[in-house]
Amino acid sequence: MVANGTTSSQPVFLIFGKSGWIGGLIGEMLKQQGAKFDYANARLEDRTGILADFERVKPTHVLNAAGLTGRPNVDWCEDHKLETIRVNVLGMLNLADLCFSHNIHLTTYATGCIFHYDVSFPEGSGKGFTELDTPNFTGSYYSHTKAMVENLLKEYPNVLVLRVRMPIVADLVYPRNFITKIIKYDKIVNIPNSMTVLPELLPMSIEMAKRGLTGIMNYTNPGCISHNEIMELYKQYIDPEFTWQNFNIEEQAKVIKAPRSNNLLDTKRIEGEFPEILPIKESLIKYVFEPNAKQRDQVLASVKQMRGR
Ligand SMILES: NC(=O)c1ccc[n+]([C@@H]2O[C@H](COP(=O)([O-])OP(=O)(O)OC[C@H]3O[C@@H](n4cnc5c(N)ncnc54)[C@H](OP(=O)(O)O)[C@@H]3O)[C@@H](O)[C@H]2O)c1
């Protein structure tokens, strides 16, 4: 194998995060592609266990979708700081370090929730945070640890850090789907954000790994979309009767423990690699709303049951 994951033969993927949302989706996708892959058994903090996984699978590429995200949400991390450090910082670095010493390319599904609109990057200005900008959002402990570890990971020449944001899938009752969340909430804020449409972008991440890309990548569709614009699409494609209520950030702060980040990420790097990538609204229509509109009655019934109204 040549450095940074470029292989002359078929790549072999080792996935961390078997029981997780994104880890599960990656495995299904690689299976459909007929790729060679296996899941890791080790915990991220366990160097011996990781080495045993390397020995068993002999990966050319590691895909890491393991990490602590908190249940029911990132507020959990506020009260579990040591666990969060152990997994998201120590564990993450452990994996990157072992991949480096074994000449294995590592792609890690990280987060773009480490930025927040401010005077230099005002909401609505169209100016997005680039891969070179220093994270300015540490309002939640989760984001704080993720920003810290990103700053260290970028020194590893074998690592690609993907900044995922508000991930979206077609299943409108899947609880982790950003659209499901905002359909379910009693009240939502209305702020434009960069988002990641997983059915479009996950295959690109495999291609990035095969290309041996490294460094930081803003891993979102180009542009941003607000909560209300998504709800308008839901109304247009699925439920014309749908209504929702907005509240502002100050009111939202009363029902969550830690502040949440809202931002626009610059997508020139990913667009350079994949010129075909769709702007966020077009991607949502193609990968989420059009497929759901084809089975509108079932979708509507499932969503109504989920909302209990
Ligand atoms: N979902 C989102 O909204 C979102 C947004 C932006 C970024 N991301 C990032 O994307 C990544 C994957 O997210 P996800 O939503 O798929 O997470 P998830 O559903 O919560 O899954 C997390 C996975 O990590 C594993 N894990 C936790 N601690 C571990 C440890 N110490 N060692 C090994 N495995 C461990 C879990 O396994 P066990 O069940 O066995 O503990 C599970 O398989 C995360 O790093 C997250 O920060 C997610």
UniProtKB/TrEMBL annotation:
CDD domains: dTDP_HR_like_SDR_e. GO terms for molecular function: methionine adenosyltransferase regulator activity. Residues 14-184 form the RmlD-like substrate binding domain. It holds the Pfam family RmlD_sub_bind. One of its GO terms (biological process) is S-adenosylmethionine biosynthetic process. GO terms for cellular component: methionine adenosyltransferase complex. This is RmlD-like substrate binding domain-containing protein. It comes from Apatococcus lobatus. The lineage of its organism: Eukaryota, Viridiplantae, Chlorophyta, core chlorophytes, Trebouxiophyceae.
